[in-house]
Amino acid sequence: MIKVGIYGGSGYTGQELLRLLLGHPEARVVAATSRRFAGVPVSEVYPAFSGRTDLVYTDDSPETVAGFADFIFLALPHGVSMGMAPIFIRAGRKVVDLSADFRIRDAAAYEAWYGRHTAAEMLGEAVYGLPELYRDEIRQARLTANPGCYPTSIILGLAPVLRSRWVDPASVIADSKSGASGAGREPQIASLYCEVDGGFKAYKVGNHRHTPEIEQELGLLAGREMKISFTPHLLPVKRGILSTIYAKMEKDVSAEEAVVLYREFYREEPFVRVCPAGRFPDLSSVVGSNFCDIGVTVDKRTGRLIIVSVIDNLIKGASGQAIQNMNLMSGFPEETGLPLVALYP
Amino acid sequence: MIKVGIYGGSGYTGQELLRLLLGHPEARVVAATSRRFAGVPVSEVYPAFSGRTDLVYTDDSPETVAGFADFIFLALPHGVSMGMAPIFIRAGRKVVDLSADFRIRDAAAYEAWYGRHTAAEMLGEAVYGLPELYRDEIRQARLTANPGCYPTSIILGLAPVLRSRWVDPASVIADSKSGASGAGREPQIASLYCEVDGGFKAYKVGNHRHTPEIEQELGLLAGREMKISFTPHLLPVKRGILSTIYAKMEKDVSAEEAVVLYREFYREEPFVRVCPAGRFPDLSSVVGSNFCDIGVTVDKRTGRLIIVSVIDNLIKGASGQAIQNMNLMSGFPEETGLPLVALYP
Amino acid sequence: MIKVGIYGGSGYTGQELLRLLLGHPEARVVAATSRRFAGVPVSEVYPAFSGRTDLVYTDDSPETVAGFADFIFLALPHGVSMGMAPIFIRAGRKVVDLSADFRIRDAAAYEAWYGRHTAAEMLGEAVYGLPELYRDEIRQARLTANPGCYPTSIILGLAPVLRSRWVDPASVIADSKSGASGAGREPQIASLYCEVDGGFKAYKVGNHRHTPEIEQELGLLAGREMKISFTPHLLPVKRGILSTIYAKMEKDVSAEEAVVLYREFYREEPFVRVCPAGRFPDLSSVVGSNFCDIGVTVDKRTGRLIIVSVIDNLIKGASGQAIQNMNLMSGFPEETGLPLVALYP
Amino acid sequence: MIKVGIYGGSGYTGQELLRLLLGHPEARVVAATSRRFAGVPVSEVYPAFSGRTDLVYTDDSPETVAGFADFIFLALPHGVSMGMAPIFIRAGRKVVDLSADFRIRDAAAYEAWYGRHTAAEMLGEAVYGLPELYRDEIRQARLTANPGCYPTSIILGLAPVLRSRWVDPASVIADSKSGASGAGREPQIASLYCEVDGGFKAYKVGNHRHTPEIEQELGLLAGREMKISFTPHLLPVKRGILSTIYAKMEKDVSAEEAVVLYREFYREEPFVRVCPAGRFPDLSSVVGSNFCDIGVTVDKRTGRLIIVSVIDNLIKGASGQAIQNMNLMSGFPEETGLPLVALYP
Lengths: 345, 345, 345, 345
Hints:
The first copy, chain A, is of the alpha/beta class. Chain A has helices spanning 12-22, 42-45, 62-68, 81-90, 107-113, 131-140, 149-163, 193-196, 210-222, 255-265, 315-330; strands at residues 2-7, 27-32, 71-74, 94-97, 127-128, 143-145, 173-178, 201-202, 229-234, 241-248, 272-274, 292-299, 304-311. Chain A has 2 domains: 2-125, NAD(P)-binding Rossmann-like Domain (Rossmann fold), CATH 3.40.50; 150-313, Dihydrodipicolinate Reductase, domain 2 (2-Layer Sandwich).
C-alpha cells in the first residue's frame, strides 16, 4: 500500500484521480491540495464523494506533502508543474506529471509553444508516459510525463503503421474531437452549457499546443521528422476524444491486413482494443474506462488509410493513464485499479 | 463464488447487471439469454464489453439455465417473469426478479394495473427487495421482487417521515423525473434522440403502473391506506431519477430537525446519503453509483415538507439494487461489488 | 415604424430581443447597449447575426438613447432597471422592463426579497405585462413590467381555475423546471456544460425570488392572499420551462370539463394553446415560439387538479412577451413579429 | 401566391418544409401526404403546429395532388421519388425532389451506389439545385434535384479553391459530422437517445452514398475527375453539419488571401457567409437558419488549406434550400420566406 498525494486535486483530472484511486487496492490518497478549496472537504466540492472519503483539501507546500506521501500526481497547469516536480524528486518521491511541462524533450520546442522552461535540466530524465511505447522506461522512471489527451489518441492510432512504414509520414492528418471536460473547470463563457450544447466547432486550427508533442512521438515512430495537420474540435459531450486520422498508403494492403497489423502490434496490451475490419469505435464504448479503441480501414479508391481511435479524455487521456504509469513505476500489475467497463448507456 | 444466470440479458438492465457483476469478486456470470441475439457475443451487441467477457448470448430454456446457474436474475418484461420464476424456484435456485410481477402483494391490485397473474400462489413468498426496509426478510428469501425505479426513489424519500407520523399521508405528491434509459432499448419514435434531446414532458399523468407499488409500500410505512399523486416526467438524460416530494407537516419541526430524523433513520445504511440542511442532491452525484441521495427541508410559509431524492435508475433503481439483494440472499457483505462513486463530470 | 433601443443588449434576453425584432415589420432596433462589448459589432459577439445586422454595441447613456429611440427595452439586472426607467419615462419614451424591479406592486414586499427600491413612486403606474390578464392596461401603459419566466408559466397555468374558484388556493404546489439559459451568460461553475449536462437538480427550494410575484398575481386571481410551494429545478436543456402544478379540487369536475374551462378562458388568446384531454405538452413544441401550451387533468383518486404548462423561457418567458407588450403599447396587432412555430426537432 | 403540395410530409424534412412555408408570403401549402398518418391532422403528429395550421395528412395519389397544387416538393426515400416526379412533370407541375434520385447525372453511377433507376430519361433535364452554382439553370428548371446535406456543406466549402485551381484535387479529404436528424424519424436502435447522447462515431467510412454526388460536382468545379476521402460522423446534436476539409495547396497564399478569394466568390450570395481570417464557424450560428458559414485558413507548416463549413442539415441542407429553389423556379425573390437568424442559445 503506497501513500499518494494529488497536487492540484480540485480540477476534473484531480477529482478523477481520486475517484479511480478509491478503487485501487494498493494505493491510498493521503493528500489532495487546492488553493481555492483549502479546508473544504472533497465531498463538499464534489458531493459524489460523500460517504466514500473524508479527505479535506489542503494548501500544503510541496515540501510538506513530500514528507508524508510516497507517490505524487501533479494535476497542475502548464508552467506550474515544472516548479513543483524538482522538489518532490529531490525528496526522493516518484512523480507523474499530468501537465505538458516534461513531455517535450527539446526545451526550445517547449518554449516555442508554451513559454519559458525553468526546469529544463530534468527533461532528460523524464519519461514520456505512454506505456504502449515506453513500458520499460516507465518502470525505471522517477518522473513520468503523462501524455496529453489528444496525443494519446493520435499516437496510439498511428503507431503500428508508422513503425511498419506503411504510410507516407508527410501525408498525416488528424481530425480530432474532444468533449468539454478537456477545457477544465474554469468558468468561462465558451464552456457554458448554453454555448456548448447543440453546437460544434473547430478551434485552434493549425496552432494547438499538443502539436509538438504529437509530432515528436510520431517522428520517433516513423524514424524521421514529421509535420502533421491537427485540427481539434469541441464536441457537445462531457467526456471523450475521437480522432479520425488519414494517411497516404505506401504499401498495397487490404483493410483486413491492416487490422491484423494492429492486432499484432497491440496483442499484449491490456488497454488497447482493435475493432474487426469494417467496424469503427463509438465514444460510448470507452467513456468511463481506460481503453483506447481503434478501427482501421483502407480506402482503395483514394489510396488512404483511415483510422479512428477513441479514449475517455479524463481516463486513458489523463488520470487513468497516470495510474497505469504509477502501477508500472511502483511494481504493481499494470491493470490494478483499472478493470473498468464503460458506463453505458 | 456463485454462478449467476441473467435471463433476459440484452436490454439495458441486463447489460448493466453484467457490467456490475464483472467487478463482483464472489459472482461469475455463466449465462445471459436473449432471443434476439442468441449466438451473438455480448461484446458484439455492446462493444464496451470487448476484452472484458467472452460470454455469448444464448436462447437456453429456464430449465437448462437452472441446471448450471446457482442464482438467477430475471430481466424480463412484466408478465413474462411470472412464467419463469416458478421454474427456477422449483429447481432450487434463488431468484431476483426485476419485473413488476411479484412486487404487488395483492393479486387483484396487480391485475387492475397490469393484467392477469398466472403465478399468484408465489406472491406470498416473494419479498419486496428494498434492503433499507426488508433486509432481514431478503436474507431469507428465495424469490425477491426488485423494486421499480420510481418507487425506490419515492419510498426511500418518504420512509422516515411516514413512519414517524410527521406528515399527513393524504397530502403526498411525488413529482418524478426519469432519464430515457427507463424506457428500455426498444426502438420507438418517442425514444429517438431527436424527440428527447432539448425536450421535457410529463407522461402517464395519474395512471403510471408504479402507482400501486408505491402506495402499497408507503401505506405499510404510514400504517394506513394511502393514495398519492405521482407524476412521471421524461428527462433528456440517459440515466437517473429525481423525485421531488411534497407533504403537509403534522408536526412543527425545523429543516435541521428533519435532517436529523433522516440521518438517524438511515444511519447504518451503506447506500443512502442525506444532504446537510439547505442542500439538495444533483443527479450527477449518483449516476454510475448505487447511492440514493436525499435532501429535505421544511417550508414554514406553507407548512410543507419538501424532499428531493435521486438515484441512478439502472443501478439503485434496478441492477445495483438487484445485486445488493443477491448479496443479502447469498450471505455476502451487502456492499460487495458496489463500492462505486458517480462518474463525474 | 418605431425606433427601438435595447438597454443591456448583450445578454441572452437582449440578443433574443434583437433576433425577434429583426423579423418585426414595424420596429427597427437603433441602439443596443453593452458595457462589456461597447464598440464591438453584435455580429462579432453573436456570429449568428452576421449578415443580418450591422448594429454595434454602444455604452450610450440613457439620456442619449432616449434622444433617438421611441421605445425602450430594459434587459438589465434587478436593481439597475429602477435607475434607468424613470429617465426614459421622463423623456416621454415608452418602456418595457424585463427585470423584476416593477413587477411587485408593494415596495415592502419587493424589499423583503430583492433589496432597496429607489423608484417606488413609479410602482403605481407600472403595469404587469401579462397580456392574457392585463391587455387593456398594457395598451395604456408607459411602463410595463415584463413578467418573470417562471411566473408566466405558473400564472397562465392556474388563472382559469383560480378565477373560477375550482381549487383550494392554500393547496397550490408548482414544481417548475427551467433550461440553463435562465441563468444568463455570466461565467460561473454551476452553469458549465460539464456541470449541467446529464444532471438535474432542485435549487433555491422554498426561497426563489419569483415567489412574491407569483403569489401576488395568483392572489389577485383567487381574490384572497395566497402562499404556494414553488420549487425550481435546473433542466439540461438550453431553453424552456415546464411547470407541473397541483391543486386540491373544490368542485367535482371531469378532465374534459377542465379542458373546456381552459379553452373557454383562453379562447381569444393568440399565444395560449390548450391540449386535448389526456394530452400534455412537451417543451419541444414551444421552444422557438411565443406559445404557452397547457395540459390539464383531474386525478379523481386524489381529488387533485394537475396542470402542466410549457413556454420558451427566452420568448414567452421574456423577449417574445416583451414584444407582445410593445405591440399592445404601440397599437400594432398583437401577433406582429411573433408568428413563430417551434424549431423541431 | 402559389399552391404547394408536399409529397411525403410527415418526416423531419417534410415537417420542416411545412414550418418554413407557413412563413412564406407567396406560397400556401394545400397538401401534405403521409401513408402512415393519412387522416391525422399535422398538429397531432407535430403539436408544435397546433394553432398554426389545420392541414390534415392525406394519402392522395400524385395525380390527385397534381390536380390542385402548382408546385410539388418530393420528400420521399431514394427510389420512390423517381416514380413520382414524372407524373407531376407530365401534369405540368414544377418539382423539387429532395431525394438523391435526380442528383447523379450518370445513370450508371447512380445504379452503382443506389440501385436501378427507372426514370433515367429525366436525368438530362433535372438541374442540380445548388443556387450558388446553378442559379440560372434552376430558374428555368421544371425538375430540380435538391442537393444532399453533406454535399451542400462540402461543395460550398471547396468551390472557390477548386475553380481557382489553388489546390490539388487528388488531395481532398472531407471529415464531416452530422446531427441525428439526418437519420430521419424511423425508429431504430442506433437513433435512440440512449445510444446517441454522450456518444460520437464515424459510420459508412469510405462508402457513404453521398460520395458520387460530391465527386460529380467537385469534378465539374475542378475541371477533372475527382476522388475524395469522405468520412461521415454522427454528432450528438439534433441539427447541423460541420465539414472539416483538407487539401494540399498548389499556390502559395496566406490565410488572408484565401478569405479574400472566398468573400469575392460568394460576394452576391445571400446565404453564404465567410468568417474573418483566423475565425471558424460554430454549428450554433446557423442552426435554425438557411446560412452556410465558412472559415478558411492556410497551414503553412504542412502546405494545406483547411476549410470548415457549417449548415443546418434540415434547412440549407434540405428544406430551406428546397424553398430557395422554389423561389428561383417561381420568380420570387430568392430570400423570400428565408430571412432567418439561428435560434441561439
